[in-house]
Write a structure and sequence with these properties.
It comes from Komagataeibacter medellinensis. The protein is mainly α and 105 residues long. It has four helices and two strands; from the N terminus they run H-H-H-E-E-H. It folds into two domains: 43 residues; 36 residues, no CATH class. The protein is elongated and about 75 Å long.
Length: 105
C-alpha cells in the first residue's frame, strides 16, 4: 500500500528574502546622537517614528547597549518611571531620575 501523502520537490532556487524596510545607514547616526543626548530607547524610537521593538532588535543585533557610562559597579542604568529619561541610579531600587525625585519630595 502506498503512502497517501506525496512529497513535492521544492526547486533549488536561491532563498528569497525581502529587502530591508528601513535604511539603517541613514537612521543609525540619528540613533547614536539621541543616545548620546541621554534619550532612552523608547524616546529614541518615538522621536524617529520607529517601532520600539524594531529599534531594540537593531541595537541588540549590533551590540549597541547604553550610552550613559557608569563610574562604579554598584550603579545601575535606569529609565525614569515618570519622565522616561535615561539616568544612572546610585542603587538598584531608585526608579526616578534626580529631577523627578526633587519634584516629588
Amino acid at each position: 500500500m502506498k503512502n497517501a501523502h506525496s512529497i513535492t520537490h521544492v526547486s533549488s532556487s536561491p532563498r528569497r528574502t525581502r529587502p530591508p524596510r528601513l535604511d539603517w545607514s541613514t537612521i543609525a547616526p540619528s540613533v547614536t546622537q539621541l543616545h548620546q543626548q541621554g534619550c532612552s530607547t523608547r524616546e529614541t524610537a518615538r522621536k524617529l517614528g520607529l517601532n520600539i521593538k524594531t529599534l531594540e532588535a537593531h541595537l541588540r543585533r549590533h551590540r549597541i547597549r547604553h550610552a550613559i557610562p557608569m563610574d562604579r559597579p554598584d550603579q545601575v542604568r535606569r529609565n525614569c518611571l515618570n519622565c522616561e529619561s535615561a539616568f544612572v541610579a546610585d542603587g538598584r531600587f531608585l526608579r526616578l531620575c534626580p529631577e523627578c525625585r526633587a519634584m516629588f519630595s
